[in-house]
Amino acid sequence: MRQLKVVAMMPHPDDMEILVAGTLLKYKAQGHEVHVVIAMDGRRGRGHLPDSVSAEEIVSIRHAEARRSCAMLGVEPIFLDLEDHRLIEDRDCYEKVITVMEQLTPDVIFTCAPNDYHNDHRCLSRLVLNSAWAPVFFADTACGVDFNPDYYVDITEFMETKLAMARQHQSQFSEDPKEMIEIVNRFRALQCRRQEIRYAEGFRLYKRFEWVKAYELLPHDDYELPEKIVPTTERN
């Protein structure tokens, strides 16, 4: 597999950790170049911070949390600092997204699904699609709601590091995020129907280019494939 330049374009600090951290860790372990872009400044993600903390202080706290998390991935996050809950598809937002895309020249991009629950997520997804020429994979939605993956990445080996990265966002979680994250990734692993896969992240490929082969872009393992895949209707 040739070396790839991978970009995760995520809406808020902590979205990358929840949705794609395991896959990015796997890319890194396989020698690929990884970049994390965080579009929003996080000022409205107060989490369980007291009301006395200002919006500017929240931005600073969330930047620091994102840097600690990304350090575990071995990268420095890129902040676009668009205002939380104010993302629209206007020229200024588009220019920020397309400029960073042109600077990074990715081979593959990960972003949120266009049917995600959060307006910032949906809007960023459309901005990415309108500015990217590289193949785009949509990440899972919150708790996997209304999302049917086409492809899965085995992240079993990287699950503990993924959880440790998520825990860096202490301002956002009043409780350990372990259970929330494990439930989704365990469910996706069960869909893979392979006993050795304990945790997985699921993705959909945006089919803009018919010639794109997902297996050439996603980090993978050399599993021994079964001689025959039995249709669901024929299984006992």
Automatic annotation (TrEMBL):
Signal peptide: none annotated. SUPFAM superfamilies: LmbE-like (SSF102588). It comes from the Bacteria. GO terms for molecular function: hydrolase activity, acting on carbon-nitrogen (but not peptide) bonds, in linear amides. InterPro entries: GlcNAc_PI_deacetylase-related, LmbE-like_dom_sf. This is PIG-L family deacetylase. It comes from Holdemania massiliensis.
